[in-house]
Amino acid sequence: MKKRPGLACYTPLTACAAIAVCTTALACARSSWWWVAAMPALGLTALGVRDLLQRRHAILRNYPLLGHARYALESIRPELQQYFVERNVDGRPYDRDVRDAVYQRAKGIEAKTAFGTERDVYAEGHEFLTPSMAPRTLRQEPPTVLVGGPACTQPYAMSLLNVSAMSFGALSANAVLALNKGARGRFAHDTGEGGISEYHLRHGGDLIWQIGTGYFGCRTPDGDFDGDAFRAQARRPSVKCVLLKLSQGAKPGLGGLLPGSKVDSEIAAVRSVPVGRTVASPPHHRVFSTPRELIHFIARMRDLAAGKPIGIKLCVGDRIQVLSLCKAMLEEGVSPDFIVVDGSEGGTGAAPPEFADEMGMPLTEGLMTVHNALTGTGLRQHIRIGASGKIATGGDIVKRLAQGADYTNAARAMMLALGCIQARACHTNACPTGVATQDTHRARALDVTEKADRVRRYQAATVRSAQHIIAAMGLDAPEQLHPRMLRRRLTTGGAIRSYADLYEWLEDRQLLNDPPPSWRADWDAADPDRFGL
Q1: What tens digit of pLDDT does each residue of 138-171 get?
Q2: Which of 17, 51, 124, 385 has its CA at a distance of 20 to 30 angstroms from the CA of residue 233?
Q3: Average pLDDT over the chain, rounded to whole?
Q4: How far is the C-alpha of 287 from the C-alpha of 293, rounded, in Å?
Q5: CA–CA separation, 247 and 254 (whole Å)
Q6: Domain assignment present for 92
Q7: Contact at 8 Å (CB) between 219 and 225?
Q8: DSSP label at 225?
Q9: Is 134 part of any domain?
Q10: Residue 93 domain-assigned?
C-alpha cells in the first residue's frame, strides 16, 4: 500500500558515489591524475548525503542532487517567465507574485516587490481598495471574530485566516502534524471530511471538525450517521467547532474521493472503511433531504456537541435554495452558528474538469448571495460567514470582508507554506514534497517542526498585512469595511464603480418587510420543505 519512491530518485547520488569510490581507488593505486575525476565525484556525493540529512527542503531529501535543478530554475525564473507560464483552470496566467509572497512569508522574509505592480491597472475587471488620506495606527493584536449564536454555549474566537479543509489521507501525517502545530493557539485547523486522526490531536491545535456525506469518524457500519460516535468526538477539548459539508467549491454535488492506494490500515481505522478500497463519499446526505430537516439536524448536532458552534459549508448554486434555508431557520427558530461559502474556484486534489469549470457560483457572487439573504431575513447578526476559495494574501482577506465575510480560510496557500510546489500529483500518491501522499518515505522528507514554523509565519504575516491595509483605509477594525471601499474598473481604461454601486445590498429584515423587485420572485419561490428550484 505504502510504496517507496522509485530508485530513479537516487540514481544521480548512487552514480556519483560509485564513481567516487572507483576513481579514489584508482587514484590511490594507479595514478594521482585520477584525483581530477575523484574530487568532483566526492564533492557531489557529499552534497547528496547532505541533501538526505538536511530537514529544510523536502524535495532535496526525496531527490538528492536531482532536486538542485529545481532550485536553480527557480533562481532564474523571472527570465524564464515568457517561456514557462503556469495557468489557472480558467486559462489566465497564474499570479506568480501571490505564490512568491506565500513562500517569502513562510520563510520569514518580508514580502516586497521592486518597481511596483506588474498588473495592468487599466484593464477591465481590475479591482482595488480605497486608501484614506487619514490612515489609522496599526492595531498590535490580530483581530478575531466570535462565532456562536444564541443557542451556542461555547462560542469560539475565530482568526481572520484559518486552515481550510484538507483531510488526513489526502495529506500525509507529517503535513497534518505541521499544520496543527503551526495553528496551535493562533488560528483554527479544519480537519477536512476524513475524520479526526491522532495527528490532528497530538499538538493540541484548535480544530474545526468537518463532517461530509461519508460521516467519517461518526459512521455506522452501513454508512449512516452515528450519534454516539459523534458525541464522543465532538466533545474533545481540541474540537472548537463542527462544520457540516453540503458541497465544496470545485466539485459541488460530488463526494470526496480517496484512492485505494492511499487507504492503509491507519486511514481505514480513522474513517471506519475497508483497507485498500477506494473511498467515494456519497453525493448527498442520508440524514436530511429538505432545508427544514437540515435545520433540525443542526440542532441535534449542537446538542450532542454540548453547545459548541455548528456550521455548514457549501458552494452556492442558486439564490432560491439559500432563501429556502433561511425560511426554514425562521420557521423553526434554529440556525447554524456560521456558514462557510466556498467559491467554484476553490480547489481540491481530485476534481473533474467539467465540475471545476462549469458548476457553482464563484466566491464573490456566492458570498454576497449568502450575506444578503441572511441580512434580508434578519439572521445575519447571529450567523458568521467564512469565505474560502483562493485566499492567499492580506488583500484577499480584506476584499472578502468588504464583500460580506467575517473571516477567511485558505488551503492552497497553506500547502504552499508547507513546501508544496504544485506538482499536481496529489491523486498519484507520489507527491515530491511529502505533502499530499501516504508514501511514508516521501512523507518523512517533510520536517514537522520546520514546516510548522513556516505555516505559523505565513498566517501571522498575512493577517498582519490585512491589518496594515485596513489601517491604511482609515479604519480601526475589520467590521468597519464596506462594499463602497472596494472598486472595480468596468471596461479597459473606462469607468470605475464601487461594489456598493455594482451590486444590490439588502437592509436588515428587508425581505420580511418589503422585498425589492429583484428579489421578490425568488423569495416567493423559496420553500423550507424543498431544496429544488
Answers
A1: 988 999 999 999 999 999 999 999 999 999 988 9
A2: 385
A3: 87
A4: 8
A5: 7
A6: no
A7: yes
A8: B
A9: no
A10: no
Q: Count the Cβ atoms, other than its own, within 10 Å of residue 365.
A: 17
In whole angstroms, give the CA distance from residue 484 to residue 420: 36
Residue 45: band (very low, low, confident or very high) from pLDDT cuts 50, 70, 90: confident
The verdict on 184 and 62 lying in the same domain is no
Give the contacts of 59 (CB within 8 A, at least 6 positions apart). 67, 70, 71, 419, 421, 432, 433, 445
Distances from the Cα of 147 to the Cαs of 2, 183, 279, 336, in angstroms?
A: 40, 18, 32, 10
pTM of the model: 0.86
Q: Tell me, yes or no, whether 57 and 165 share the same domain.
A: no
Residues 6 or more apart whose CB falls under 8 angstroms from that of 54 comprise 60, 61
AA identity, residue 219:
R
**Which of 36, 71, 106 lies at the terminal end of a domain, its last residue?**
71
Contact between 425 and 432 under an 8 Å Cβ cutoff? The reply is yes
First to last CA, the chain: 45
How far is it, in rounded angstroms, from Cα 409 to Cα 347?
A: 12
The Cβ of residue 141 has, within 10 Å, a number of other Cβ atoms equal to 6
pLDDT in tens, 427-437: 777 888 889 88
Which structural domain, as residue segments, surrounds residue 284?
144-524
3-state secondary structure of 438: coil
pLDDT at 84 (0 to 100):
36
Closest by alpha carbon to 291, among 7, 109, 527? 527
Residue 99 in domain: no
361 and 272, same structural domain?
yes
Residue located via cell numbers 457572487: 365
- The set of cell numbers assigned to 502 is 455594482
The Cα 311–Cα 241 span in angstroms is: 8
Residues 79 and 84: their CA atoms lie apart, in Å, by 10
Q: Whole-angstrom Cα distance, residue 501 to residue 366?
A: 18
pLDDT (average), residues 356-360: 69
Note the pLDDT of residue 64. Answer: 78
Domain holding 284: CATH number? Answer: 3.20.20.70
Number of domains in the chain: 2
Residues 284 and 411 in one domain: yes
**Between the ranges 60-69, 119-128, 366-375, where is the mean pLDDT highest?**
366-375
Burial 344-353 (b: 16+ CB within 10 A, else e): bbbbbbebee
CA angle 346, 112, 101 (to 5 degrees): 25
The residue among 255 and 306 whose pLDDT is bigger is 306
Determine the pLDDT at residue 533.
67
